[in-house]
């Protein structure tokens, strides 16, 4: 049984790890230290069992059949929606199943595009964009929350603007204030950066956007798995996250939208399951959320995601967040002591999510990743789908280590010890602290 401590203890983590068979693996003869949960988290047995049980005993098309198994499948499917809705403080009707967060954001962006073409009637006019309107994002966005808005701007003639990041790759509400104007129609940004670990002040930013009538779209991929979310407190209009980053399966994502907005937003994916009446000339669509769920649904995945939510809640989101903060600070402190390491984002002592991206002077991130992998350390390398952010920081790629509820302090220490060996292994020139700028030793 887990302790009742305000943060996860060593013994708690060891108990949790028993639920994750993947963590017992060895890689290149070394115990696996899985430090890539920011990309895809491992799944506990309860989540695997929930999906398997559904497929073994309840597998059927939902919302269609009149037989008993179809009814059971539909009930489990909608119970999963209610569970995920409660997880973020929403009503079930405000939760749309998507294939991932990228799909969810595209659903919103292309809904705006359809409204701009006159689809959806008078109720959809609030989403229509024209030349002179502005879409605001940030320079730190994941491509999934940038490219769809680029396409929307190109389709409608609206202007895409961005909040520039500071020299450390982060930004603050004050940096956005002067860019949010009466021309701003949409403000889309990430709750937590997948590179810097920066946590945006969402409620403050939402208030600024709403004051000029703009709608707020929040990418919660890096926050939903790690911290308590409440859409009412955040005051966002749309919010997206993916199942595979929060102990759930791939192929399932979530879009939250205010009920009145979802009912007015034109769908962009059409077909069966989302209609009321179809003639050879036209179709009429169901209310949300079904109006956005065309075709066969990811039913077993939704059931498994609901179980992942229950698992996270049984551990405690506040405890998970506190634990990850400890691990992040441990990584930051350790990396700051290694010559030639540049931490991306703010250094130790600053609030951030449980991930740290860094650059090793003189060694490409891919080489760093291979070196760490040889020692059983699984990290992420590349631009992390944030090319503009990396370009702004003068980088092509970085190495990212991300912690989760099952990460141990020993694994973090293994990472630090291995990173300290990288530059010597590849013959990179020795670098002294005196030769580096503050950002290069983790204090940017």
UniProtKB/TrEMBL annotation:
<comment type="function">
    <text>Catalyzes the removal of elemental sulfur and selenium atoms from L-cysteine, L-cystine, L-selenocysteine, and L-selenocystine to produce L-alanine.</text>
</comment>
<dbReference type="InterPro" id="IPR015422">
    <property type="entry name" value="PyrdxlP-dep_Trfase_small"/>
</dbReference>
<comment type="similarity">
    <text>Belongs to the class-V pyridoxal-phosphate-dependent aminotransferase family. Csd subfamily.</text>
</comment>
<protein>
    <recommendedName>
        <fullName>Cysteine desulfurase</fullName>
        <ecNumber>2.8.1.7</ecNumber>
    </recommendedName>
</protein>
<dbReference type="InterPro" id="IPR000192">
    <property type="entry name" value="Aminotrans_V_dom"/>
</dbReference>
<dbReference type="InterPro" id="IPR010970">
    <property type="entry name" value="Cys_dSase_SufS"/>
</dbReference>
<dbReference type="InterPro" id="IPR015421">
    <property type="entry name" value="PyrdxlP-dep_Trfase_major"/>
</dbReference>
<keyword id="KW-0663">Pyridoxal phosphate</keyword>
<dbReference type="InterPro" id="IPR015424">
    <property type="entry name" value="PyrdxlP-dep_Trfase"/>
</dbReference>
<dbReference type="GO" id="GO:0006534">
    <property type="term" value="P:cysteine metabolic process"/>
</dbReference>
<dbReference type="InterPro" id="IPR020578">
    <property type="entry name" value="Aminotrans_V_PyrdxlP_BS"/>
</dbReference>
<keyword id="KW-0808">Transferase</keyword>
<feature type="domain" description="Aminotransferase class V">
    <location>
        <begin position="34"/>
        <end position="415"/>
    </location>
</feature>
<dbReference type="GO" id="GO:0031071">
    <property type="term" value="F:cysteine desulfurase activity"/>
</dbReference>
<dbReference type="GO" id="GO:0030170">
    <property type="term" value="F:pyridoxal phosphate binding"/>
</dbReference>
<dbReference type="Pfam" id="PF00266">
    <property type="entry name" value="Aminotran_5"/>
</dbReference>
